[in-house]
Design a protein that fits this description.
This protein is an all-alpha fold. The protein has helices at 8-21, 26-33, 37-44, 52-61. Helices cover 48% and strands 0% of the residues.
Length: 83
């Protein structure tokens, strides 16, 4: 599974899709990642306060990884839309 995410909401959407693809509940994913179900819910809804360590634990539990790449020349992105 691949996907482009430029803000917390998009990250949450990709994580939710991956969780559902693995047929996991939020609680099951939380258990795999060592987190509470409530934390998974916050991430999936795009909470911007999620720590990078938390996101990495969730990605690892889903057998995904975080990559850094040059920004593609697609749709514009405004940092102010996050706040």
């Amino acid at each position: 599974m691949t996907g482009l995410a430029r803000n917390p909401k998009q990250i949450g959407t990709l994580i939710r899709r991956a969780r559902k693809k693995h047929a996991l509940s939020q609680k099951e994913l939380g258990e795999r990642a060592g987190l509470r179900q409530e934390t998974i819910s916050l991430i999936e809804t795009g909470n911007p306060a999620a720590k990078i360590e938390t996101l990495l634990a969730v990605l690892s539990a889903l057998d995904l990884e975080f990559q850094i790449a040059p920004r593609s020349k697609g749709e514009g992105w405004d940092i102010e839309s996050n706040f």
